[in-house]
Amino acid sequence: MAQQTVDNPFFARFWTVLSAHESRGMRELRRANLLGLSGRVLEVGAGTGTNFAFYPDSVTEVVALEPETRLAPLAKAAAAAAPVPVTVIESTIETMSATEPFDAVVCSLVLCSVADPDGVLRQLNAVLRPGGELRYFEHIASSGWRGGLQRLADATIWPRFAGNCHTHRETERSIAGAGFVIDTARREAMLPAWVPLPAQEVALGRARKELLAVE
C-alpha cells in the first residue's frame, strides 16, 4: 500500500534552504510553467509552496498535494499569502481521495521522485477533464557522459540524498505513454554543461488530455 505522507528530515532541510534561494532563472521557469492557467488546478508535490506566488488570477482554486511532513507546514504558510485560493493537503498523489475533475495539473520537479511515474501519470490523466492540461517542469534523462553519470547516481546515492529523485527518466515519453498529447516542449540547462552533476537539464512543457470522441 502506498504511503500517504513522507518523513525525510535531511531532504526537507536541504529543500527548504534551496527553495528559499532560487535563482531568477528558476523563478522565471516556474512562472512560465503556470502562465495562462485557469479554473481549478491540482499541483502535485508543492514542496515549500514556491509556485504559489506565480499562479495567474484566472485560476479559481489550487489543490496542492505535499506529502513531506516537514515541508507541508511551509507550503500552508505560503498558501496563506498566495494571490489565488490554495488548499494544501498532506498526501501523495497515489493516495489522494477521489475528487471532481481538474482543469489542469501542475508537476514541478516531482515526477523524478515518485516510485511509479507511469502509474502516476495515468492517474493524473484520469483526474483531468477532457481537454485539460498537464503543465510540467521536470528533470529529464540526458545523453552521453551525463546520461551515464545519471544512471550511476540513480543506482547509488542520489535518490537517498535528494528525496528519491531519479534524474535519468524519460519523462516526456512517459507523459505520452499515459495518454497525453504534448503540445509544446522545450529543454533548459540549469547548470553549465561542464558541471559534473546529474540534475543539469529540465524539460518545460504543456500536454493535454484528449477530448472524448463524439459518436
TrEMBL record:
Q: Which InterPro entries match?
A: Methyltransf_11, SAM-dependent_MTases_sf, Thiol_S-MT
Return one GO MF term.
Answer: S-adenosylmethionine-dependent methyltransferase activity
Question: What range(s) does the Methyltransferase type domain occupy?
Answer: 42-134
Which domain of life does this protein belong to?
Bacteria
Entry's PANTHER family?
Answer: METHYLTRANSFERASE LIKE 7A, METHYLTRANSFERASE LIKE 7B
Species: Mycolicibacterium helvum
**SUPFAM superfamilies given in the database record:** S-adenosyl-L-methionine-dependent methyltransferases
User: What is the protein's given name?
Assistant: Methyltransferase type 11 domain-containing protein
